[in-house]
Design a protein that fits this description.
Elements (H helix, E strand, L loop, with lengths): L3 E5 L4 H12 L3 E6 L17 E5 L5 H8 L4 E4 L12 H19 L3 E5 L11 H16 L4 E5 L2 E2 L6 H7 L5 E5 L4 E2 L2 E2 H12 L5 E5 L5 E2 H11 L5 E5 L1 H17 L11 H6 L28 H4 L9 H7 L6
Parallel strand pairs: 1-2, 1-4, 2-3, 4-5, 5-6, 6-11, 7-10, 8-13
Antiparallel strand pairs: 9-12
Helix pairs in contact: 1-6, 2-3, 3-4
């Protein structure tokens, strides 16, 4: 275990999978996060002392530098959906990413991997996409050989996509969607982690867009999810102009309360993002270029969405029992 990788945001959804894979590769793993006492679950990923959660504030040079000390590679998994507050789009996804790249270049760190998003563009339609684009530009300016990964919507056991809509389906007979015709290309979180490992080990660099084997509309994806969780719901596709009304009210509530109310339901920026397809560009380098076979979401989501079925873990037993003949 002579090599060390520092993963900023390593206790998050994507970061923990990268941490687990790097521990299996025999590297020491430093998980840099805001609340290391809540990231102790990463320690069993390796042998005692191999995976170490440490405190880091991505908005502070000294904090980022301290977490980076002695690293052979750094990974930036930090992202946010918060437009306001101290940890907003600009502070985290633009300035924070730039800070990590600048300090990594100054310290001569051999490899840098950055988790971005499909649609990252300084001239993008949403503030989220713009901040992601600004972060990428700053990274490439400071560290031209960095690997930048742009995933589509990511799925996996702890995801905020399928879990969110599966939970919403339990609230009533109608499941409202915004951008039901927008296309997505769901990518498995462990496939993203495998791609990051390639960059950490210096086997690849440049920009890669990551998507799964299936490109489908938002509505079609949710329909498959409903089949998995055994629920019948009316999927209602809200027009964008109508969706902007509750989004504006929720954004105003967050602003008026000074952040006490956090709008994690629907924001105007999310509505703007949903106007564009979230799929891999035809000319982009992909998982295939890294030698990774993309995992389809339909084969994975039943493994963790069973808990949203009306009968939970007993659904399979009840379905099997229907076929038993009466004595």
């Amino acid at each position: 275990m002579s090599k060390l990788v520092t993963i900023y945001g390593g206790s998050g959804f994507v970061g923990r999978y990268i941490a687990r894979r790097m521990a299996k590769e025999g590297w020491r793993v430093r998980v840099a996060c805001r609340r290391p006492n809540q990231a102790l679950f990463v320690k069993p990923y390796g042998t005692p002392g191999q995976v170490d959660p440490v405190f880091c504030n991505i908005r502070d040079d000294a904090s980022v530098l301290a977490a980076m000390a002695g690293s052979d590679a750094v990974v930036n998994c930090v992202g946010t959906f918060d437009r306001g507050g101290k940890n907003n789009f600009t502070a985290v996804q633009a300035e924070g990413a730039a800070r990590i790249a600048r300090l990594a270049a100054q310290q001569g760190v051999p490899a840098l991997v950055h988790i971005s998003a499909i649609g990252a563009d300084v001239n993008g339609a949403s503030l989220y996409a713009q901040s992601k684009g600004e972060g990428e530009a700053a990274i490439l300016a400071a560290y031209p050989t960095a690997m930048i990964l742009r995933p589509s919507v990511i799925f996996g056991n702890e995801d905020g996509f399928f879990n969110r809509f599966a939970a919403m389906s339990r609230l009533g007979p109608i499941l409202p969607l915004v951008g039901g015709n927008t296309k997505f290309q769901p990518v498995y979180v462990d496939d993203v982690a495998q791609a990051a490992v390639k960059g950490i080990k210096g086997e690849a660099h440049g920009i890669y867009e990551l998507g799964g084997p299936d490109t489908e509309s938002f509505r079609a994806i949710i329909a498959k999810m409903l089949t998995v969780i055994r629920r019948r719901r009316l999927v209602l596709n809200l027009p964008f102009f109508i969706a902007n009304i509750p989004a504006t009210l929720l954004d105003f509530a967050a602003f008026a309360t000074g952040g006490i109310f956090r709008n994690s339901i629907l924001t105007r920026d999310q509505v703007a993002s949903l106007r564009s397809d979230n799929t891999v560009a035809p000319d982009a380098k992909t998982l295939a270029d890294l030698g990774i076979t993309a995992t389809d979401y339909a084969s994975v989501i039943p493994e963790y969405l069973w808990r949203y079925r009306p009968s939970g873990q007993y659904a399979a037993i009840k379905e099997s029992a229907k076929h038993l003949k009466k004595a």
